[in-house]
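Example 5.3 — Erythromycin esterase family protein
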Amino acid sequence: MTTQLQDAARPYSPAALTSLLSPDTRVLALGEPTHGVDAFLDLRNELLVHLVEHEGYRSVAVESDCLAALTADAYVTEGAGDLDTVMATGFSHGFGASAANRALLSWMRDHNGTCAPEDRVRFHGVDGPLEITGAASPRPVLTALRDHLATHLGPGLVPSAETLDALLGPDGRWTHPDVMTDPGASPGRTDDARELRLLADDLQSLLTAHAPQLLAAASTEAHRRAELYARTATGLLRYHAALADTSPHRIATLLGLRATMMADNLDAVLRTEERRGRTLVFAHNAHLQRNLSSLTMGGTLFEWWSLGAILSARLGTGYAFAATTFGTRNGTDTPAPTTLEGLLAALPHPRTLVDPRRLATALPQQPDLRTPADHTYFPLDPATTDLTDAVVFLPEI
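Solution (predicted structure tokens):
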């Protein structure tokens, strides 16, 4: 079987990867099969350098809080702040502890220091201000959006700061750790929360309706940031409402709402960056895949459409997805020889690039799905590789 697989595989290089993509590609999505492994982030960094220097890419978006990422972007584009502080505050999910993420920001800052402002590589986050333990209070984004509109449109069109503060109440009721597991602890479906959702919708409408005036009064960057605040406010309030849901669909709804927030954020990045260049996005394979995502918790199967599935539906051939997978981890958890990872491990390449379009004809039968020892690793399903544009295999991490 290894001989047949050689027809679909070759040594990996960034140029070999992009040769598999449609010329219409606007965003290249590079996935990782598990978090916390710098080998995949190192691969991302290497790819980004190539894309910037040879393929006209001018931005990178990562699976991290879209608001926190503003701090990281200010550092790489303007040199604002010091790197230690930026690593601590410019990422969510603990990703600021990664040496590869630190190397990414350092390279971007050094590169941008030699560029004209219009050619600088921008840094974006596509995730909402969400963690496994819960979601942020909507206060910061609603307050910032309200203040922006009040400053440029006058106070008559927007609610007072006191009205907003009274509806929000203490932040602790939004961020209490019990909210994630107990719908009854969530304020997401209270009368105040319903009023806040209407208010956020009205503020977002004002932002759109008065865009010409607002753009004339403030910078384009300030307007885009206000749009980010509006998206995040409405997304957070939907998410908090779902946290208060007592139906069996609660978890699937939360996963779908997170995916929607990520898709809308990435869509906004593409609209912002399309005149400057293309975008590399990096996140878990499960967020970027085109096929239906699924997760089993407590014996219950939950399904939802991911960021990648939503963006692929919107962009068509403008969306490209390259999945990554691996063989052994620290010399253990060796994949069975009948799995895709086991077959790829028999090839001699230090890193292997697979063309999924040739994979089906190269193999006489579909490989088995890997059963990993590590529950944080989501194995690549051979039945869905035809929905990827490339697969990158690392023999060992």
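Remark. The radius of gyration is 22 Å.
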